[in-house]
């Protein structure tokens, strides 16, 4: 006799993988594979010089990749209502880790920024990266049910979002704070929040960024060097100049795989934030266009999933993932090509970094899960407990800090 599990992870109401889900899965695997191939070439010389093992960074990235694939598999096969049920707890937990990076002695400072935590024998974690999938889930859950939420709960979560952005700014990490702010703003826009409120929020965010830049000279220097990197090509503009040289050296067809010259201690952090520069140098304009085509395909299918979703929260989760993965990739490319000021945003599933890899695969898993549930009749976990139609009694609100139950 077949024994059925009491709490199956796989939602059996989804009979088969939708075409969009299959395409997104293979695009994710292709994205990861290209990232590993590029990381091997970009990091080999540095790893061999620093550690005597050219595969040092690739091996470490592979370990994080396995952890990310576990999260990916769990999310792809877990009903979204169950994931939403723990989204608030997960976000609050990782927010606590973000705030711990600001505590002297707990945060690990690299290049003047305290963005990392070393938890005992575990490798360094970057909580501001790990919180991104939870931010997608919780922003979709809050803004997707905005009209049904009582004002105290609205203000509570707006305050938590503001606390998150402020904590990331204090690390300091202006680029990640800006990305998270844009993610929240775009999800709220897609949810149909009043344009007056969104406009006021955008203005406030702009002035907050100006305030951050005015107090930090190195951020001002980055902006000035971005405007004319050649004016100070050996100091503040050095990184951007070397990145532009790498991209330009690629030409139409590239220098060939493994043949980049800029990765030989000319371009700083060439296997993390500026890994696209090495990719463009080795694969040229043609390879860069193919990479952009892959991003376009991922975004198109992701937005198609959002349009097909029957529930608003599902739609907003799909939109949030597209903004996070594709938007962050385009921002990274913009920095490497000099279209945007130099920032510390990694290229999802390309740049070296375990926290970014796990967060990116988790986000992709959420999008694929939405694609699998588009044809199902699952009920989204609400903030407001539903009642039968015709009832005139105002529904009660569950605790904002506790996982709500399904109707």
Walkthrough of the structure:
- The longest helix has 34 residues, at 275-308.
- β2 and β3 form a beta hairpin.
- The chain has one domain (19-106, 122-373).
- It has 407 residues and is mostly helical.
- It is globular and about 55 Å long.
- The protein has helices spanning 19-51, 56-76, 80-85, 87-100, 127-144, 151-169, 174-191, 195-215, 217-227, 238-249, 275-308, 312-336, 354-373; strands at 107-110, 113-118, 124-125.
- Mean pLDDT is 84; it is low at 1-15 and 385-407.
- A three-stranded antiparallel sheet has the order 1-2-3.
- 62% of the residues lie in helices and 3% in strands.
- The protein has 13 helices and three strands.
Would you summarize the structure shown here?
The chain is 62% helix and 3% strand. By secondary structure, it is an all-alpha fold.
